[in-house]
Amino acid sequence: MLRARAVRSAALARRTMFAPVYGVARTYMMQPQSPRVAPARRLLAVLAPQRRTMFIQTESTPNADSLKFLPGCTVMDKGTAEFTDKRESMSSPLAKNLFALDGVTGVFYGPDFVSVNKDGDTPWSTIKPEIYSNMMEFFTAGHALFPDPNSSMAASDTTILDTDSEVVAMIKELLDTRVRPAIQEDGGDLEYRGFGEDTDGIVRVKLKGSCRGCDSSTVTLKAGIERMLMHYVPEVKGVEQVLGEEETVALDELAKLEERLQKHREERDRGFSP
């Protein structure tokens, strides 16, 4: 019996050794696994962590220096949040990581998207892979956007208050239900900053996200928001944009530059005069 068992083992070893030559190695197996081994391997397969994958899409916006990234999951449960510099980004780990990339000038959280703004000198081909990598790692790990719940910066500017007049309540409702969804489709948002009900009848709003610094923002204000509000609310006489500190400084510097150029042109013209 021992000899017969040895012969069978040698024959099995020969078949296993030569099987790869004929391309049928997987059909020849060594002796069956111990019944205790297979359940253990099945248990390890169940307990092994599952790899989570994510497909992040991008959408262009009217602003050439802003892109809309859609991670396929909820970003903000309520409201929106915007970061315009590194100091503001410290309250959110994702915004902080994105601002660490060269060329990033703004980050905006929407309901299901993240808009990233860059400077005009940095091409998207340079920073887009890094943005993908940061977002992929952040969302697949399930990190919280705001470790401190009190710093979520959720927008509540269009919440209708008991102290609001009927006109203000109507303006807020139109901005929240008609204007905001359309602007968020372009990767931006707006913030209601007040209405001159007893003075000039001007609705003041602040554009955010991809709308910040966009060349078509004036068209959005006048041909879109202003026309609609004036149609539904006769008390509204116009819509004006409220600029942030950064935008105000930029406009001041631009005005100073134009003044210097104008002065230089005048001096040049006087030099050529007879």
From TrEMBL:
Specify the protein name.
Answer: Scaffold protein Nfu/NifU N-terminal domain-containing protein
Which species is listed as the source?
Answer: Malassezia vespertilionis
What family name appears in the similarity comment?
A: Belongs to the NifU family.
> One matching Pfam family, short form?
Nfu_N
Record's Gene Ontology CC terms?
A: mitochondrion
Q: Which GO terms describe its molecular function?
A: iron ion binding; iron-sulfur cluster binding
**Boundaries of every Scaffold protein Nfu/NifU N-terminal domain copy:** 56-142
Q: What is the top-level taxon of the source organism?
A: Eukaryota
Q: Which SMART domains match?
A: Nfu_N
Q: Which GO terms describe its biological process?
A: iron-sulfur cluster assembly
